[in-house]
Amino acid sequence: MAWKKLKEYLGNLESKKTNTYSLIEVLIVYLVVYSVTLIVEHKYIEQLYIIPLIIFSIQHNIAAQLLNILMYSLFVLFISKREYNLGEILLQYCIILSAFISSLFHQNRIIEIKLLKEELKRSEEKLESSKKYINYLEDVIDKLKAKLIYENEGISTLMLDLSWVYVEDLREFAYIFLEKVTTFLEIKKAGFYLYRNGFLRVIASIGNPSIGFSASENQSLVIKKALEKGSCSIFEVFNQVSHLEREPLLAVRVGEEKIIGVIIVEELEEPILLNSIEKNLKILSVWLATKLEGIEEEMKKYKLPDGTYTVDFYNKIKQRLADFFEKYGLPFSEICISIHNDELKSVLKVIRSDDIIAKIKDDGNRISLKILLPFCDEIGQISIMERLKHVSKTIEFSGC
């Protein structure tokens, strides 16, 4: 409100300044013409006054136009030394009357233009309001479309089925989710990857993932665009990549403000259904994000104050990973170590965020730990062991 009043005040100041300048301009022009008539002696020199009279009658505001007529009358009829006969006087009055009528027409045109501008402004405001209403209606239509998809394609039934699943482990739920979704949508190969600081790590996969168990977000243009705008299919980047075989068919982001992960589809039973599958996965991803956030919170209750997990929780996750290995052939590894107690924090910093570490023995100064590495083969295990050697001078490895 204050800003609007300030703008109006400044606008009024500008208008007043313009009006003053126009009055000064009229005075100066007539004084210049008067000076010319004094210097140049010619029979018709005083006819120069008609020029500013005509020009100013179609310029400026009504005040400047009235001053224009007044100055013309003053200089031509009163100050001029020329003697006019009756016919010339009548002619001058006709010229003055014509100028006055022109000024009225000009002023009327100014008012019309001002009214048209105001009408245009109101129309623009109505248009902006209409655009907002249209956007609102589009949102409503999108929601109705989503509802139709739920009902017509059975997504609501699938989500209801998934909502009855109760698990406390993120990986287990991700597997159950993928199993049901890939069967329902006829997807041959897909994976769910957790996203952390620009890197992806698989926690569930139907089929052996072609892009690997871990990847950078810049490794795939499809994945990168999905992280940016919500989803991306191979069709959108068809002309932007040179090696299409390295790209997944589809990637859908899970999470909005906080990105939890990405659903990646690599093979389909019917590739022609890719657009429909993208639409359905986007709907499911919103529900999945909420579910996974809840499971992450549940998992925290198994975490001890020192950063390790309970042995029971460790064994439960290990058994599930063993089941996944038997069913899908996805690897996992274990590392058993003994370190000084004060080196635990350093060890926790170098393991991956989704690794599980449990304390199995505590002799006071020295502790024994078991580290569970989901989706980690022998090469990955060796890499982590090397990192552990760098942060612990007292580390001792043993069989698990």
From TrEMBL:
Keywords: Coiled coil, Membrane, Transmembrane, Transmembrane helix. It comes from the Bacteria. The chain crosses the membrane at residues 20-40, 61-80, 86-105. Residues 106-133 form a coiled coil. This is GAF domain-containing protein.
